[in-house]
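tool_log.txt
---
The assistant was asked to compare two proteins side by side. It first ran the structure predictor on the initial sequence, then on the second. Raw inputs and outputs are pasted verbatim so the downstream comparison step can read them without reformatting.
(1)
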Amino acid sequence: MKKQISIIGCGWLGFPLAEFLVASDYKIKGSTTSKNKLQTLNQSAIESFLITINEKGIAGNHYDLLSGSDIAIINIPPGLRKNPNKNHVVEIEHLIKAIEAHNIKYVIYISSTSVFKDKNNFPLIDGKTQPNATSNTAKQLIAIEELLKKSNLNTTILRFGGLFDEQRHPANYLSGKKNIPNPNAPINLIHKKDCINIISLILKKEIYNVSLNAVNPKHPQKKAYYTNYCKQHHLELPEFNYDEISKGKTIESSQLENLLNYTFKQAL
């Protein structure tokens, strides 16, 4: 019998992940907040559901979305840049309760390396480093991670660095910008295909109850990397601000590489 997975959040990462897992012989249910995307998901053999989550609860047929699934993948961006006053922790708390009510035992939660603080000595962040960032987004992500650890769910917390692919690259946003901070900081990026491969391996190897950092092992300097990328792709060059000391961090993913026997495949 095929394993059934519910993917909560079939967006930029979640949709191609769902397609990949369907091709890998999983039965996939997926949620979207866009009515227009339902047909697209269904055409890819993803049973689709229109679901929105807010501080009051879950709107939509989340009962059928979660019913019968062995595993849930939570892939919901916090959305705190657009709405900094919302309580994303409460939103995910509603979702955790719903997952527990459906007797789903295994969860993969997509978190972020932003839970680690940037410092001017660019500290090395490894598998033993505890989250310590103090931004609004970081504090809420840390609180959600703790909620999941204390729940009845066997949860793998997957902290991705900056996500990109050929169409969506941070250099496209930085091109032509001025006064960009932290020019000397190391970058911490990961290609979308590596993200999908890593999630697939976690499912295949059944790696749960662990927190993993997932970042490409190469960490070139921010200014050098984005300047070279823009030159190679004929984009307007960005300009950086050296008036303040650069802050950053170096995220190390050897724990993940060793546990999954994984080699990052996509170049920066």
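(2)
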Amino acid sequence: MLEIRGLRKKLENFTLCVDDLEIYSGEYFVFLGLSGAGKTTLLEIIAGFRRVDEGRIFLDGVDITNAPVNERSIVLCHGRYLFPHMSVEANIGYGVGGGREERKKRVREVAEMLGIEHLLKRKPGTLSMGEQQRVALARAIAVNPKVVLLDEPLNSLDRLTHESLIIELRRIHRETGTTFVHVTHDFMEAVSLAERMAILREGRIEQCGRVEEILRNPKNVFVASFVGVKNLLEGRIVRENGKVVFESGGLKVELDHLSCLEGNSGKAFVGIRPEDVLIVSNSNCRFGRLTFEARVVDVYPSSLSTTRVELDVDGIRLLSDIVSSKAAMMKLKKGDIVKCCVTSAVPLPPPTDRIAKLGDVA
């Protein structure tokens, strides 16, 4: 539906480059990246507020690279773009075609869909941040665009409002079938919403694909760090008793594919998600994986439902996330010696000059 080909835009510190990207009709697509990665600039280019230096943008096969903003059927949505002197009702109805009654009917329909019909007579300045975001989204949907662009729509919201708006966005996307393109620096927000995502770093797409694909097969150390792979380890990959094993000091982790041996000699890198480091109560891992002993360094909550356990394996720091109820039953404490296994580990290419070091994520 939305195609970007050979896009180049010179920015202050780097050049935004998108060589070949397709966003499908009706999908929820997320650009994920650190602040200053070029996410908002890319949205502004798609919406028509900025011009490209090179490249083309197509919508349903039509070249819209130089089309005026009002002829693109694309709406950039953000609470800060509301007209402060107009009522919520007038803001939502701005740009809606038809006669007065028809316009009022459409505004009412969209307001009811987002649960903001009680706000119609108020001014944006009297609304909370969450209410402003809902009004902005209502105004975007009211004109029946082909694409809605969401620029950090959940930024600066309290946790409860943030969670409720994620649920609202999922529901509205499902009910309208409109293509949503969303930018954020929040990994969990992206995972909660996206069907596919692209991870941006300094104006370039490091990896693009379905969420589960990126989570389980990050392309490099930067992507792995960004999507929550907290254990980034250096060692070597060997064949042992018919298995492919990553070893680093006293730590041995079985890998899933013989292909991991291809091109791997000498140093190797792997990424391990904390939830894939299991603390087992007996000498065997029920997944049939290699086990190893570790010393508990610290235990603390990592979320409302999980506990993080910092482990030491012969000088190697390893993080494990386990369900808090299980942690309570195990009565883990500093200094305990526990048996562990790793259920999944991802081989990664060595960091390049551009991705200079392990864990290069703020």
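---
observation on (2): Residues 87 and 123 are 5 Å apart (CA to CA). Confidence is low (pLDDT under 50) at residues 354-362.
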